[in-house]
Amino acid sequence: QVQLVESGGGLVQAGGSLRLSCAASGRTFTNYAMGWFRQAPGKERAFVSAINWRGGGTYYADSVKGRFTISRDNAKNTVYLQMNSLKSEDTAVYYCAAQARGRNSASYYYVREYDDWGQGTQVTVSS
């Protein structure tokens, strides 16, 4: 089990940038793959990005490829999501999630495959 706290959300103009952070508790952070998901009103929580336990493998939804970058700093127990060229359709609550090490990378795309979740941070992109 790991405790996660997101931060960095806010209001930004279309075309602008935000960097989300997810701070994780505990000494076991390096043993977890980390994911970012988002949920817009009336929609299910959807995959955005993920990074494996060592940071060498990154994964992105097609809708954010080339615009978003996921990274992690295990010394700080933190995972980041740099979001550039933001669009109105990026508006959502963004959640970070932790998955225990050992699962296949194909699992990274699915909400059900994650063990722990943060409370979310609101990202609003205005036109």
Write up what this structure looks like.
By secondary structure, this protein is mostly beta strands. The protein has no helices and 11 strands. The strands form 2 sheets. Strands 2, 4, 5, 6, 9, 10 and 11 form a 7-stranded mixed β-sheet that branches. A 4-stranded antiparallel β-sheet has the order 1-3-8-7, with no helix packed on it. The protein is globular, with a radius of gyration of 13 Å.
Q: What percent of the residues sit in helical stretches (DSSP H or I)?
A: under 10%
Question: Which blocks of ≥5 consecutive residues have pLDDT under 50?
Answer: none
State the shape: globular
Order of helices and strands: EEEEEEEEEEE
The count of helical stretches stands at 0
Number of strands: 11
What class would the helix/strand composition place it in?
mainly beta
Strand content: over 45%
Which characteristics define this entry?
single chain, globular, mainly beta, 48% strand, four-stranded antiparallel sheet
In short:
This protein is an all-beta fold.
List the helices and strands and how they pair.
Elements: E1 4-7, E2 10-13, E3 18-24, E4 32-39, E5 46-51, E6 58-60, E7 68-73, E8 78-83, E9 92-100, E10 116-117, E11 121-126
Parallel strand pairs: 2-11
Antiparallel strand pairs: 1-3, 3-8, 4-5, 4-9, 5-6, 7-8, 9-10, 9-11
